[in-house]
Structures are given as structure tokens and as C-alpha cells.
């Protein structure tokens, strides 16, 4: 009699389950990926480097429209008033920035008149982003000394650059993503993906073997 074919579904089940949960979560919050790994300390102490932040689409109910620090009824998120958003400046390597919305501006406005002087490096005539070239937002990292638009991090941020806003953060869970990004930058995306898939398969196989032994031990 031939031996029964080994059941290998247990080896991939953990990876499939994680992927399914991520897809379902992405559908719920309306963004993909639904998580952001924080790579700097610019939003400390509300969010530290290595934290994993869950984000939602900017207009996704029930969390409402975008709110800034200047709004009188701004919600408190991640240690401060106003929404913390993820945005990317086109042509700047598409490296996402994770900062708070300070206040909205209109095209042609001298926004320094409404700004906190302590967060400015000069007056409107000295800033390349002032007057505002279009409608958008002035942004700020909670731990930074200047507005993004004063520090040269970004011009005024229009709403179409905003990929999502933060809901909450999970401490230290983002180090995995930070490590993956660092490996991809050093060794390439393909090599990193091969290692990750192999590691996931190995981990799934070890888990399946362990569970199988427990089951066999329980039948004795």
C-alpha cells in the first residue's frame, strides 16, 4: 500500500491567512497598503520610529473629512489636534511624508500671516512656497522645528497628494516593514521578495510540523 500523500496546505495556511486579513482590512479602510511603518522621529512623541500606523482614505466614512490643527473642533489623533496624513510630492522620489495638517491655505495667500512664527524660517518673501501657488495645506511634523513648507520638505500640499490619514499606531510593529524596505534598497526588490517568500514558507512548514506532532501526540 502506498503511503498517504502528505498534506502541505498547513505550510502555506499562515501566509494565506495574513494576506487575506490584510486585503479585508484594506477594503475596510479604503487604502492599500492599509499600514504605514514610521521611519523617522518627526512625529514623536505621539508616534515613534518603528511604529506601525493604520491609515484610511482621506474621505472614508465614518472618520469624516480632513481636519487641521487650526479647526476649532479638530479631533485629537496621535498626540495632537488635527489629522496626520500620508502624502508624497510628485517628482521627489515619491517618498511618503507622514505629518500633521497645520492649516488650509488658498491660492495666492500669504499664509505666513496665520502661521506660528516659531515654526517659520522667514517671512513670505523669503519662502519659495509663499504666496501659496494653489489651494492646499501647510503641514508639520510634531517634533520638527519648522513647517514642512518652511524647512524645504514640501511645497503647499494639495489634497490630491494625500494618500490617506492615520487612525491609530501600534508601537514597534513597524520595524518589520522598515527592515524589509532597507533590504529592498540594498539588495533589490526581487531578491528581498524571494527571501521573504522562502521565509514565510519555512515558517509555515515549521508551524504545520509542530501542529501535526501535537495532533499525533493527542491521539495516543
From TrEMBL:
The GO cellular component terms are: membrane
Instruction: Name the source's superkingdom.
Output: Archaea
Keyword Transmembrane helix assigned: yes
Q: What residues form the membrane-spanning segments?
A: 12-32, 187-211
Question: Which UniProt keyword terms apply here?
Answer: Membrane, Transmembrane, Transmembrane helix
One GO MF annotation is: serine-type endopeptidase activity
Which one GO biological process term can you cite for this protein? signal peptide processing
Q: Which CDD domains match?
A: S26_SPase_I
Cellular localisation:
Membrane
Q: Known InterPro entries for this protein?
A: LexA/Signal_pep-like_sf (IPR036286), Peptidase_S26 (IPR019533), Peptidase_S26B (IPR001733)
Indicate what this protein is called per its UniProt record: Peptidase S26 domain-containing protein
What species does this protein belong to?
Halorubrum hochstenium ATCC 700873
Q: Which lineage?
A: Archaea, Methanobacteriati, Methanobacteriota, Stenosarchaea group, Halobacteria
Amino acid at each position: 500500500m502506498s503511503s498517504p500523500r502528505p498534506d502541505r496546505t498547513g505550510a502555506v495556511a499562515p501566509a494565506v491567512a495574513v494576506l487575506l486579513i490584510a486585503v479585508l482590512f484594506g477594503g475596510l479602510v479604503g487604502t492599500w497598503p492599509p499600514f504605514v511603518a514610521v521611519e523617522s522621529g518627526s512625529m514623536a512623541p505621539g508616534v515613534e520610529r518603528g511604529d506601525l500606523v493604520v491609515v484610511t482614505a482621506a474621505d472614508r466614512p465614518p472618520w469624516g473629512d480632513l481636519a487641521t490643527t487650526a479647526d476649532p473642533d479638530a479631533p485629537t489623533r496621535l498626540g495632537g489636534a488635527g489629522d496626520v496624513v500620508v502624502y508624497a510630492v510628485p517628482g521627489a522620489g515619491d517618498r511618503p511624508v507622514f505629518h500633521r495638517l497645520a492649516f488650509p491655505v488658498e491660492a495666492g495667500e500669504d499664509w505666513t500671516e496665520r502661521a506660528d512664527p516659531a515654526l517659520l524660517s522667514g517671512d513670505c518673501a523669503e519662502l519659495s512656497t509663499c504666496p501659496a501657488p494653489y489651494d492646499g495645506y501647510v503641514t508639520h511634523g510634531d517634533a520638527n522645528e519648522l513647517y514642512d513648507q518652511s524647512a524645504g520638505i514640501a511645497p503647499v500640499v494639495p489634497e490630491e497628494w494625500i494618500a490617506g490619514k492615520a487612525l491609530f499606531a501600534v508601537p514597534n510593529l513597524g520595524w518589520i516593514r522598515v527592515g524589509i524596505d532597507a533590504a529592498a534598497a540594498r539588495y533589490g526588490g526581487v531578491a528581498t521578495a524571494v527571501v521573504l517568500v522562502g521565509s514565510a514558507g519555512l515558517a509555515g512548514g515549521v508551524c504545520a510540523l509542530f501542529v501535526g506532532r501535537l495532533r499525533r501526540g493527542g491521539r495516543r
